[in-house]
What we know:
Chain A is an alpha/beta fold. Chain A has helices spanning 18-26, 48-67, 78-82, 88-102, 112-122, 136-148, 164-167, 172-181, 201-211, 218-229, 247-250; strands at 5-12, 34-41, 72-75, 108-111, 127-132, 152-158, 189-193, 215-217. Chain C contains three helices and seven strands.
Amino acid sequence: MPGPIKVGLVVPSSNVTVETEMPRILRRHPEASFSFHASRMRMHTVSPEQLRAMNAQRERCILELGDAGVDAVLYACLVALTAGGPGEHRRVESAVAEQLAAGGSDAAVLSSAGALCEGLRALKAQRIALVTPYMRPLAQQVVDYLEAEGFEVTDWRALEVDDNLRVGRIPADLVMKAARDLDLEGVDALVISACVQMPSLDLVQPAEDEFEIPVVSAATTGAYTLLRKLGLRVDIPGAGSLLRADARSST
Amino acid sequence: MSKPEHRVKGVDHAAFPTFDPVGTVRFYRDVLKFPVVHSICAAGWGPERHPDFIHFFFDIGNGDRIAFFYYFGFQPPGGAGGTGDAYATFTDDVPQFFINSRHLAIHVDDEQDLLEYRRRLDESHWPVEMQVMHETIESVYTHDPNGYLVEITRSLRPVTPQEDLDAALTVEALVDVASGPEPSMDKLLARKAELIVQRATGWEQEQERAGGAKEMTRP
Amino acid sequence: MSTLFVLDVPENVTIPQVAAQDPAVAVDRIGPYFRIASPTAIVIDRRATGCRHAVWYSAIAGLIDSRVTQHDKDALRVEDR
């Protein structure tokens, strides 16, 4: 039996949720096993200067993950991408892919922003609603970014938490309260957390059951896109219908 | 609309190794003023292990780029001898024309620009080694810090359609004589004369028809 | 008959002109090429053409039953094979 699939995670230094939720999701995969290897970029605030500094750190992170011989790299900082303006995830993904390819690595490359779009497209979602932990201006940027990708954001809530560590401790009932507050009339899909740091995995399935529309999070779309890029079956229970995409065809 | 057969858009990048990144950056960025436009930091992750390296790029106009690889801690491989460049060395009996046959020529628009680059080089550690008027181009040459021959060139006039025909016939004659025994210039010129007799009149009539058509469609 | 072709480009136009100063030489055209022909040897003086060396040494486009017996800084000489 081959060893586990090595998943590299590039995360902001204050993020603790990606490293918790991605393994929890992928542990439920029926066939493959995974190991996770994170590399951290120091970032306090999202400013042009810090984003430039983070760019240099990104190269260092990719070097570290490349050394580990990872099979895939998930660049997991959504605001860093959306702050770069429309299409930034394509630029970052291609820079990471080029860096890896230059060193002879054929690791799959994905980003949280790219994966969110891919997950929503897989659901054929056009009109979406979302909950973000960010302050309003930053949340607005995320909304604009998704609209530039062709989605219509019909309603959204910003929980206005600016400290990233506190984002990692936002209670589930607060997120659900914000979701219940949304006008979901005619919405194709709900993004229960557009942020890889806001804990939401345990909310995806209950929210989907409650609202009766597909519900995703940055983590579930990340897992979906990872499985697709690696050519693996998308069949993970209890984390929303997106991650059951291949379940019906499997038996 | 269907795409044309010939779709490529020039040089994305031409890449060379360097053992002198400091000199290379001085030469291309500081002397020639070619902007640094891209870089990659990587290591050997594939089947072939290799040292950590930096791959860095300079803009050579048109969005085209010249790129270098610098490998940390990697010494120049033992070459054949004392002439050549960072990529390969040769023994002294290898003629210079052959070594110089492989080079990069960068285009400029006019004489003023050619002389400007000549000035930049002449004020640097890498002055122009020669300035040559060729058939329809004028060029200055120097070797960069890695020993690569760099040419900067301008057209003396636009290329005419008959030169494209001539080049096509030359190349066809070359393929013909190089496919046979003992290729020589003499054989090539004899073969090319046959092709001229076969093709040149028809080509000119074709041009006149096409030119006439163009005249008519001009607004 | 000695026969050579020279492409009609601005740098080359003096070559058939100088060649034609010999009454034995006939110059006509095949497509965009000058055809320079003579029952005897064709001799063209480089200085009279005013051609730069690079132009001079790349001027011959083709030879019919002929060979180059001289091609240097002074002259081009083409004779029957």
